[in-house]
Structures are given as structure tokens and as C-alpha cells.
Amino acid sequence: MNHDFDIRRQVAAVDAAASEAARQHQARLTKPPGSLGRLEEAAIALAGLQGTATPRLDRVWISVFAADHGVAAEGVSAFPQAVTGEMVRNFAGGGAAISVLARQIAATLDVVHLGTVNDPGGIPGVRRAWIAPSTANFCSADAMTPAQLRQALQAGADSIALAREAGAQLFIGGEMGIANTTAATALACALLGEDPRALAGAGTGLDATGIRRKVDVVERALRHHAGATTPAERLRCLGGFEIAALCGAYVAAAQAGIPVLVDGFISTAAALAAVQLQPAVRDWLLFSHRSREQGHARLLDALQARPLLELDMRLGEASGAATAVPLLRLACALHAGMATFEQAGVSSA
């Protein structure tokens, strides 16, 4: 495990030669140039990220970080806060959506418990990286202390260390935490200079009144933390343990040279923080889907990201990213398995 994570350490370089070799290979396959569209682009991108002209996605690592939020006290979720701890047990028991998806795509599922108000204690299959029962309510205090932020970032880096030891060819980060769409909205607004009304969505299923309450809460938080002007301070004051862990994981993955497939709204907010902390991290990020959550499109635009899917999902847990893995595997299979014009004896254009 990585015990000396330095968020400032240089990010790995993408292998431009491998990308170019993959691009040239695509041009020789028995199809009109560009006719497989985004599947061709995905194979070429993965080639550069994996440093090989024939990328593969046999070993996928999924880390789901779970933590509670003090801002839940403001009534910003349709579900009670106890659900976070209960879902940790559900992840480990195999009953959550991401548990099913991970089995289906034969991915390793790493469940990381960072702190919940109803602590379920040690659970087989759950890695305990306890920080505190929850963040503070960021309407009146900093969500995290500097030490807690370091712990959360380190938890993300530790997952990457494990993924690297396992030979992971792709990393996916997920999250669970009641009220975390509110935290992600506040963080995104601060990072982008956006109005909360443009980004606040239904989250766990809020009605129009609930969304107005969320907007009010985020506006209060942004006023309270107007002095937080750096990405790190905005993450500390407005984020959550699991959002910071995702941010740390994305930076550590880029440093380790492991491609990342980003999930939905909350994961993309963490990705934006990671890119603002370390701009070169952006080269290592692929984007899985466009969430139904209102603010996700704005975050994707800010990152100049074109997601692979749009399925009206808004669950989180890494579910959207896991759903996109078979598509990326098909892209790799087509890239490696199709015949060239020369091999097939087919006339080229």
C-alpha cells in the first residue's frame, strides 16, 4: 500500500507511439476508415494509456468509497442518513447494483468504508479506512480538517496501490453517501464559479421543493466558504470523504499510469477537482456516461469530455462506468480481432 501519497508528484506520460501504432492499425482493418466511430477512438485512446498497440481490459478494478455528510442535517436527501452504513453491508453482501455489475463484468470490487454515522463495524469484504462518522455540516463549518482531507486522499491512493498490485488495466471509482449530491453540487459550483440553480438536481429523488431547499443550502455554503479560493481548499471545505478519496484515486491512477473510467455526477465533480489540482490527470480520464443529474452535463463540458453512454442513470456507486466496460471490451476485441485488408485479401479504398 502507498503510505506517502504526494498529490504534486508528476503524472505519467501517455504513450504517443502506442496511440499512433493503434491508429495506423485501425486504418488497415477491413472497414471504411472511421466507420466504427467512438469504438475506434476508444481503442486508440486505451492503446496510449496502456502503452501497447493492442489494449485489453481483462482486469478491471472498482473501488466504491462510502462516507456520511454533515450537511444531511439540512434535509437535502429523500433517504435517511442511516442508508449509507446499511449500503456498505449491502455492497459486501452482493446485493447492490454495483455488486451485480462487478460480478457480470468479472471486476474486482473494493469497498472502502471511510466513516458513517451508524458504524456497522468490521464487515468481511469491506476495507476499513475510517476517518470520522461524517464530515461537518459545511453550511457552518469546514467539511473536513486538513488532516481528514489528507486521510481521504490517501485512502484513494491506497486503492490505486492495490489495483496496481493486482495488475489492473482500468480503474473505476464509485461512491455512496447520503447527501453527497449536495456536496458534489457545492464543490462543482465553487470550482466552476456556477450558480447552484444551474447544477442542483434531484439526487436521490427530491421533488421541486426539495431541489429548492438544496439550492438554498448550497448558496449558504458558498457564502460561508467564499474565502476558499484554491481547488484543495474548496475540496476540503465543501467536499466529502468519499469525494476526496475519488480525487486522490484519480491523481494516483494517473501517476501510476492506470487508465480511469469516470462514473456519474459525483465522480465527475471529484475528477474536476483532480484536474484542477493536477491538469495532466485529464489525459488519463475516460468518461462512461452522461447522468440524468442536472449538473453532470456542465461538468462534462468543463472537462471537454464525451461520455460513451446516455442511459438516464443517476444511481452512482460506479454503476454507469461498470455498464460501459463491455463496450470498451468490444472496442478492444474489434481492434485486435479484425483482419487487415492484406490478411483478408480484400481490396482497400
Overview of the structural elements:
- The protein has 349 residues and is of the alpha/beta class.
- The chain has two domains: 16-54 and 334-344, 5,6-Dimethylbenzimidazole Phosphoribosyltransferase, Chain: A, domain 1; 60-328, Rossmann fold.
- It has 14 helices and six strands.
- The chain has helices at 16-28, 38-50, 82-93, 97-104, 146-165, 180-192, 196-199, 208-224, 231-238, 241-256, 265-277, 296-302, 319-337, 341-344, and strands at 60-67, 108-115, 126-128, 170-176, 260-262, 285-287.
- The chain has a six-stranded parallel β-sheet with strand order 3-2-1-4-5-6, with helices on both faces.
- Helix 2 packs across helix 13 (319-337), helix 6 (180-192) packs antiparallel against helix 9 and helix 10 (241-256) crosses helix 11.
- The radius of gyration is 20 Å and the shape is globular.
Name the features:
349 residues; globular; alpha/beta; 6 strands; Rossmann fold; 48% helix; 5,6-Dimethylbenzimidazole Phosphoribosyltransferase, Chain: A, domain 1; 14 helices; 2 domains; six-stranded parallel β-sheet
